[in-house]
């Protein structure tokens, strides 16, 4: 499996709108086992996204899906940048 | 919901053994929606654990479950310490 844990930074005052956009856009994707969108309580504009995929290739391919591209286009003006980004190798657990 | 993202550090040379112990111990827990155990490919001894719970209280209560205490006792000699630790407020997504 392939995993990503990252923190996105919303434009000031637009975190809730960005969260809503990301949640609305989180339709099933081939090879995606888990995709958790969370508010970062330690900042005013952070959003944590934790992903588990069957493979790195399926994550990469997902970026070309029509509904993912539509969500990226809608979200882009609300994104100020990116902070932490960690790749992981999920081995198992609960809910994946 | 309540979330935790953290990186545990294994004693040198014991990461695989610690991963196996954590995976064997990951039985269902009340209020636990997701518990992902992953190798950190960026280090020799890091293990990422990403958790989603219905509430902070259910996470806290889980630490008193018999099978969780047994896993903690078995894992403790293999744990060198803890690195990053982030609390989150999961809002939704896929697989939770």
TrEMBL record, chains A, B:
Coiled-coil segments: none
Chain ranges of the ABM domain: 2-88
Oxidoreductase in keyword set: yes
Alphabetical list of InterPro entries matching this protein: ABM_dom, Dimeric_a/b-barrel
PROSITE patterns in UniProt: ABM
MF term (GO), any: monooxygenase activity
Family matches, as Gene3D superfamilies: 3.30.70.100
Keywords, ordered alphabetically: Monooxygenase, Oxidoreductase
Pfam family of the protein (one): ABM
Record protein name field: Antibiotic biosynthesis monooxygenase
Organism of derivation: Devosia marina
Lineage of the organism: Bacteria, Pseudomonadati, Pseudomonadota, Alphaproteobacteria, Hyphomicrobiales
């Amino acid at each position: 499996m392939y995993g990503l844990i990252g923190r996105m930074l919303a434009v000031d005052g637009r975190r809730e709108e960005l969260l809503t956009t990301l949640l609305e856009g989180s339709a099933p994707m081939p090879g995606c086992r888990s995709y958790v969108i969370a508010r970062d309580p330690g900042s005013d504009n952070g959003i944590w996204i934790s992903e588990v995929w069957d493979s790195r290739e399926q994550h990469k391919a997902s970026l070309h899906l029509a509904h993912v591209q539509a969500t990226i286009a809608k979200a882009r003006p609300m994104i100020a940048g990116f902070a932490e980004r960690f790749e992981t190798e999920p081995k198992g657990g609960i809910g994946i």
